[in-house]
Design a protein that fits this description.
alpha/beta, 208 residues, 6 strands, 4-stranded mixed beta sheet
Length: 208
């Protein structure tokens, strides 16, 4: 008895629907992604073997480089806005609603309070010109001259008020930066009884 032949069916799959979904997802990610903002103070971090990821929220970053210049930045637009309000009250420098909005999108800054308005009102590309920002004053006292002390304190207060959590702090220093500049920042943190913070480093080549 002859063998019954099974009718072969086409194995072609219509991928039109899959392509449509792929392009929709790609468009979504492109529109919602946040571009990395250029930093006004580029530093070459030292190498280490630690692989702990820096959190994306409730974080303040202190950057030290270029012969001791100190820059400061905080994650979160609401926290930045509240922090600026506290500093405005402390130094009696008013800011408009537009200036607060522009400040809220700045990643980091490194100028005295008296020059902050000028930096805020600059174009983003002009703001990050090398050498433009001289760094935040960080004298050894807690008085108004130690502006870094009050920026850190205001950021901690703003985070506690809005998020009801403690602000995490990280120090990002240039590999060639001298120790006294880093120690100055650590001393300011310890003066606020902040003894737990992160040091940001780059991964060693042999660990890739």
């Amino acid at each position: 008895m002859p063998r019954a032949k099974v009718k072969r069916t086409s194995t072609t799959i219509d991928m039109t629907a899959m392509c449509d979904v792929s392009f929709l997802l790609l468009t979504f990610f492109i529109l919602t992604a946040t571009a990395r903002q250029p930093e006004p103070l580029e530093v070459d971090t030292p190498a280490s073997v630690t692989q702990v990821k820096v959190p994306d929220e409730n974080l303040a970053l202190i950057t030290v480089g270029d012969d001791g210049k100190i820059f400061f930045g905080v994650k979160g637009r609401e926290i930045k806005g509240r922090m600026l309000e506290l500093m405005s009250e402390k130094y009696s420098i008013p800011f408009t609603a537009e200036e607060k909005e522009r400040f809220a999108v700045m990643e980091t800054f490194g100028v005295p309070m008296g020059n902050l308005k000028e930096i805020i009102n600059m174009d983003a590309n002009d703001r990050v010109r090398p050498g433009l920002q001289p760094g935040i004053p960080a004298d050894s006292t807690k008085e108004v001259s130690n502006q870094l002390f009050h920026w850190i304190y205001s950021a901690r207060v703003a985070t506690k008020e809005l998020k009801d959590v403690d602000l995490r702090l990280s120090i990002k220093g240039d590999a060639e930066e001298k120790y006294p500049a880093i120690k100055q920042v650590i001393d300011i943190l310890q003066s606020q009884k902040v003894n737990k913070f992160s040091l940001i480093t780059a991964l060693r080549n042999e660990d890739f």
